[in-house]
Design a protein that fits this description.
The protein is of the alpha/beta class. Helix content is about 35%, strand content about 25%. It folds into two domains: about 120 residues, D-Maltodextrin-Binding Protein, domain 2 (3-Layer(aba) Sandwich); about 100 residues, D-Maltodextrin-Binding Protein, domain 2, CATH 3.40.190. This is YaeC family lipoprotein.
Length: about 260
């Protein structure tokens, strides 16, 4: 016969399972998806069942969230979110920070930016925030100079000085790893680099500084920010277990924000 305490515990677990809230969280491939799978494991005993939904680009996760197809997403930094809300009218809100993924420069043709030839082809993301982020990285490295006042979203039209006469190819961020056979260098977001088998630590010939405005965030629809499941989601993400997973899995290529 089961002891009363054991029976009570089993009934409590069964009740928790029955009452578990289910949400869908949109992510991009690579580290965002991998980390959210770990978050789901932590959240399950807390009464939150997370269905991790992968999207292949940076636009659809916000559209899906705004349309009510998912309850939250975790894939973007604040400058990108702000631009999306401005351009598309999304009514979304940040409920927590997650990770920073320094953008890297990759090449199949050179091992050192000092050997980059005049007129080289440079592939960058075609969305305003990540494209601007790539140009700011090139400016930090002394390869271009941007017009003052362009902020975080410069475009190639804002390049004031281009001593090497670099030629820019603006492409969908997810497609950039495939351009390495054609472009001389490609500036690639870490999630797409990792998803394509590139190692930011071993394969990047230059990396963005870790201290930057591009910390990633968890986003929900405005009005949902005070829902109990939001706190559970953020608490699970900010858990010691998830931090240990990130530190052990990415070896500095992905940096926690908490």
């Amino acid at each position: 016969m089961l002891r009363l305490a054991t029976l009570t515990s089993l009934l409590a677990l069964a009740a928790a399972a029955t009452m578990a809230e289910e949400i869908k969280v949109g992510v991009s491939p690579g580290e965002h998806a991998e980390i959210m799978e770990e978050v789901a494991k932590v959240a399950a005993p807390m009464g939150l069942d997370i269905d991790v939904v992968e999207f292949s680009d940076y636009v659809i996760p916000n559209t899906a969230l705004a349309d009510g197809d998912i309850e939250a997403n975790s894939f973007q930094h604040v400058p990108y979110l702000d631009n999306q809300m401005k351009d598309r009218g999304f009514d979304l809100v940040v409920v927590g920070t997650t990770i920073t993924t320094p953008m890297g420069i990759y090449s199949d043709k050179i091992d050192d930016l000092a050997t980059l030839e005049d007129g080289a082809k440079v592939a960058i993301p075609n969305d305003p925030t990540n494209g601007g982020r790539a140009l700011l990285l090139l400016q930090d490295l002394g390869l271009v100079t941007l017009t003052d006042g362009t902020g975080l979203v410069p475009s190639p039209l804002d390049i004031e000085e281009n001593p090497k006469g670099l030629k820019f190819l603006e492409l969908d961020a997810a497609q950039l790893p495939r351009t390495l056979a054609d472009a001389d260098i490609a500036i690639i977001n870490t999630n797409y680099a990792i998803a394509s088998g590139l190692s930011p630590k071993d394969d990047a010939i230059a990396m963005e500084k870790a201290e930057n405005p591009y910390v990633n965030v968890i986003v929900v629809r405005k009005g949902d920010e005070d829902q109990p499941w939001v706190k559970t989601l953020v608490d699970a993400y900010h858990s010691d277990e998830v931090k240990a997973f990130i530190d052990n899995s990415y070896h500095g290529a992905v940096i926690t924000s908490w």
